[in-house]
Design a protein that fits this description.
Helix content: 40-55%
Largest sheet: 4 strands, antiparallel
Shape: elongated
Strand order of the largest sheet: 4-3-6-5
Radius of gyration: 30 Å
Number of helices: 11
Structural class: alpha+beta
Distance between the termini: 20 Å
Number of strands: 6
Length: 305
């Protein structure tokens, strides 16, 4: 989950936070080919936000206006080379300016539907501004760390199992394999020879580490019950066939490091602060919904936040 909070996205923060949940899963690193060292980037020259970029029918368009256009229209320019984005944003800003001027000349700004939409857009923008200034900007590093510590403390330890298996179609086949194991046969060799699991034919049936719920229930229960170094004395049936399972090792899963999940923890703090602010403001507001059925549905939705 990214920490990038833009004003445009903050308008829908209530819905996003209402549906989201904190996930403290560590990010998976990807191996990449070593890159050639890049030349040091030259620091960008400071830009005067009041500098005039263009003049349209006597109205100035400044660097600040252009930066706003680039931010609001960033998705449209995402596939463009960086050197073209500025020109594209300026072109779009000029296009918007001349058409807006013509719309006012034509009286479109007086249309009741337009005025209602403008009022809503202004309220949505103010909503986003308040969330950014009164919620996002006020979150401290100490609060984020405290939320992480709280989540770790409230998460019970998870036991993981490292196991191998041999998957066959019939119980008779599985019984024959167990008989060979009882006679001292090598589990990995039998797995390579007999398993129908494609991934296990060259790895000795190795399944790696897994935790509760990652395997089908019958397999999970049997593997959890085995001692380290032991294999199942009776075949285990699942929807995939018959398994002979051997446990190589067990361990308690370590929680993710703070740096790996601090953005998720920060999002959780922001979500809680946002919900608390909304509840306070809603409690002080006089809200009337004449439609009783609609009111019940809204109240039920509010109670889930």
């Amino acid at each position: 989950m990214s920490l990038l909070f833009r004003r445009a996205s903050l308008a829908s923060l209530g819905l996003a936070f209402g549906l989201s949940a904190l996930s403290l899963s560590p990010l998976m690193a990807q191996d990449t080919a070593p890159a050639q060292p890049a030349a040091p980037a030259q620091p960008a020259a400071p830009v005067d936000p009041n500098a005039v970029v263009a003049t349209i029918n006597g109205q100035t368009l400044t660097e600040a206006d252009l930066a706003l256009a680039e931010g609001e229209l960033s998705q449209q320019f995402a596939q463009m080379p960086p050197e073209q984005r500025r020109a594209a944003a300026l072109s779009a800003a000029i296009e918007i300016k001349v058409m807006a001027t013509q719309a006012v000349t034509s009286g479109l700004d007086k249309d009741p539907d337009f005025q209602r939409r403008m009022a809503f857009l202004q309220q949505r923008a103010l909503h986003g501004e308040m969330v950014e200034k009164d919620v996002v900007d006020k979150v401290t590093d100490a609060e984020v760390r405290a939320r992480y510590d709280q989540e770790i403390a409230n998460t019970p330890p998870t036991n993981e199992v490292h196991a191998r298996h041999i998957l066959v179609k019939t119980k008779e086949e599985a019984d024959a394999i167990i008989k060979q194991l009882d006679g001292g046969a090598d589990f990995q060799k039998l797995a390579n020879e007999h398993t129908s699991d494609p991934s296990g034919k060259t790895s000795g049936g190795d399944l790696g580490w897994f935790g509760p719920g990652q395997m089908v229930p019958e397999f999970d229960k049997a593997a959890s019950a085995l001692a380290v170094g032991k294999y199942t004395e009776q075949p285990v049936q699942t929807q995939f066939g018959w398994h002979v399972i051997k446990v190589e090792d067990k361990r308690t899963k370590q929680p993710p490091a703070f740096d790996a999940v601090k953005d998720q923890a920060r999002q959780a703090v922001i979500r809680d602060k946002y919900i608390a602010l909304v509840k306070t403001l809603r409690a002080d507001a006089k809200v009337e919904i004449p439609d009783e059925k609609l009111k019940k549905t809204v109240d039920a939705l509010e109670n889930t936040k």
